[in-house]
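Quick one: co-fold with iron/sulfur cluster.
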Amino acid sequence: MAFDIEMIKAVYDRMPARIAAARALTGKPLTLTEKILYSHLWEGTATSAYARGASYVDFAPDRVAMQDATAQMALLQFMQAGRPQVAVPSTVHCDHLIEAKVASTTDLKVAVDKNKEVYDFLSSVSDKYGIGFWKPGAGIIHQVVLENYAFPGGMMIGTDSHTVNAGGLGMIAIGVGGADACDVMAGLAWELKFPKLIGVKLTGKLNGWTSAKDVILKVAGILTVKGGTGAVVEYFGEGATSMSCTGKGTICNMGAEIGATTSTFGYDDSMARYLESTGRADVAALANGVKEHLTADPEVYANPEKYFDQVIEIDLNALEPHLNGPFTPDLATPISKMKEMAEKNGWPTKVEVGLIGSCTNSSYEDIARAASLAKQVAAKGLKTKAQFTITPGSELVRYTIERDGFISTFDSIGATVFSNACGPCIGQWARPGAEKGEKNTIVHSFNRNFAKRADGNPNTFAFVASPEMVTALAIAGDLTFNPLTDTLTNDKGEQVKLDAPTGDELPKLGFDVEDAGYQAPAADGSAVQVKVSPTSDRLQLLDPFAAWEGSDLKGLKLLIKAKGKCTTDHISMAGPWLKFRGHLDNISNNMLIGAVNFFNEKTDNVKNALTGEYGPVPATQRAYKAAGVGTIVVGDTNYGEGSSREHAAMEPRHLGVRAVLVKSFARIHETNLKKQGMLALTFANEADYDKIQEDDSINIVGLGSFAPEKSLTIELVHADGSTESFAVNHTYNEQQIEWFKAGGALNIIRASVK
Ligand code: MIC
Ligand code: SF4
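Sure, here it is.
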C-alpha cells in the first residue's frame, strides 16, 4: 500500500468541488496547473480569482521532502517552532553527503562513518517529530519521492530545487528554502506569487536516439536559464501522453534549470503504469476515479494560445539529441552541429568520462537504453574510449537493474558503480587528478554543469545529455561523434555504426528490492532526545537574528559588486563545504568566494573599505561585522540561480550584510533572503548598476514607510564626496515586510509559540 493513502484520498475528495468553484470564479476553462493550485488553497474553496504573475496566494501543500544537506538547517529552524509533530507528511533523504570515490559499498561505508553525527541528528529529529527517514544509500530524494510519494494532482514542497521532478507524476512540486519547509511543517500556510503559465505542446513521438532529456535540453535552449522565472510549465499533446512517466520526470526535473517554479503533465496511462509498477495500484485506482480533474479542461489544450501566457511547440519526430554546455545548462547544441560549435569555441573534444544516473536520469528505462548501447561494444568489437560511471537514483532501481543484468553489462565496458546518491553531480566526486586543474571534457546525464560543480576543477567542460548520448559519446571518446550518422572503427578495422538504443519502460519482472532503506518515525516521539554537541563543527543550534533597528540603513560599505553569473554555487559552494551545512558559522567561511569582483575580475578578493586592503570575502565581511559596519552586496541578472540552499541567504545575514541589490533575482533565492530578514532589492533602472563604485558609502532610504509596490532609494556617497541617488524596487508584500522588521520569519513563529 502507498504511504499516506488517506491524505491522497482526502485531496481527491475535495478536488471536484474546489475546481468547479475556481472555474466559476475565473469564468474560463482551467489548465491543470490552475486546477491543482486552486484545490490547494489555504483558505479552502476559492472565494476570488487570482491574477497570474501578480497575486500572492497562501497554499496548503500536501507534503514536504528534505534532503540531508538542506534538512539540517530546515530542521534546526523547525526545532524552534515549538511543535510536537510535523503538521503534514514529511520525509528526510540522505543523499548529498556521500562522496563518490572508489565504488558504492566502500564509499557508502566511508560516508556513514564520516557523517555519523549529521545522520544521527537527522535520524533522531525525524524520529521525534514524525518524519519518514531514508537512510544513506536509499537513494536520491527526487527518485525516492517519485517512487513512493508523488501522486497526480498533489502539491508538495521540498528543500531542493529539483523537487520539481515530481511533476512527472502530475504534481505541482516546488523547490523552496528550509524556512519555507519549516513553516509548512509547523502548520502554517505557504505563500507563492500565483505563477504565470507556459504551455509546451509536444507533437509527434520520441524515436530512435532522441529521449525525453532532449525535450528539456531543447526547451532550455529556447527559454534560457531565466525564461521560466515565475512560471509553471505545463506539457501536453500526443508527444506527452506517449512518453513514459519517468521521462516526464526528467523533463520536469530540469525545469529548475530554466528557473521555472515547476513543471507538470496531465495524468495519463504512463502514470498509472508507473504507479502500479512501484506498488501503488491503490493510488492509480483513486486517480482513475477523478481523471478529468487531473488534466486540463479540453478547451485549453485545443486552444492553448488562449489560456497560457506563452506557448512553445516542439515536434518530437524532428527533435535531435542535444548536448547542453559547457558551464551553463541552456547552451543547447544539437548533435549534428557539435563539430562546428566545438571547433568554433575551442572546446576540448576528447571525452574523458561519461557519467550516467543522478536524480535527473536514473529510471529503469534510462538504464536499460544505455545498457543496450553498452552491449554493442563487445558485440561489434569496439572498445570504450572514455571512463564510465553510474550513479543509480535509488536502491529500488539499483537492485532491479542488477537483477536484470544491466550492471554486469556496464561492468563489461569497465564502468564504476557509485552509491545511490548525488555524488559527482554535486562536487562530491573525488576524481583523481582533478586538483591539477587541466582542461578536459566530460559528458553527463545530470542537470547542472556550472563551473567546478562535478569535480571541483574549473577547467572541466561539462556537457549535459541523455544517458543514451552519454554512453555513445563515452564509447566513442569524442564529443563530436554523432551516432546517428557516424561510424566507429572496430578491432578488425571495420567501420561500424551503433544501433539506436532500446529498452523497456518498466521492468517486465516488476521492481524488486531487499532493503529500500526506509526508517519509520516513532509513533510517539515525545521522549526522543535530539542531540547537538556544543563543540560540534558540523552542527550548531541557531540563535535568532536581530530585529530591524527601525531606521534607514546608513553608511553601508560595498562588500562586493559581483560581475556576471552568480549562482548559489558562487555564493555558497557545495562540494567540500557540504559538511558544514548544519553549522552556520563554519559554512559562512565560503560566502561569495566564487563570485567575480567587478573591480578586479578576481574571485574571493575584495577591498576592505576600512583598511584599504584586499582580502577574501568572508574574512573582509567578518572584519566589517566586528567593526559594527553594515554592508551591501551588488549583483547582476538572475542572481542566486540554481539551488534552493538557504545558506546562500543565511550566511550574509549571519555575517552582517544588510541588503542584496541586483538587476534581477532567481525566485527561490529571493524568497530565502526575505525569509531571513534581509533586504532583497532590484535596480529600477538596470544601468544604475554602473554607478556603484568600490569605495562608495551607501544609504538605503525610505524604510520608515517600507510598503508593497513602493520603491526605496539608494544614495551613493562616492569617495570624492559627490553623491548620486536612484530608485530601487522590491517585491515584498505586507507579510514579508513584517519578516524584515522582525529580523526574519522564524522570529515571528517563535514569538507566536511563546
Ligand atoms: C543542487 O542540485 O544544486 C542541490 C545540491 O541539490 C541543491 C540543494 C543544495 O544545495 O543542498 C538544489 O538544487 O537545491
Ligand atoms: Fe543531487 Fe544532483 Fe539531483 Fe541536486 S541535481 S538532487 S545534487 S543528483
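If it helps, Residues 590 and 736 are 27 Å apart (CA to CA).
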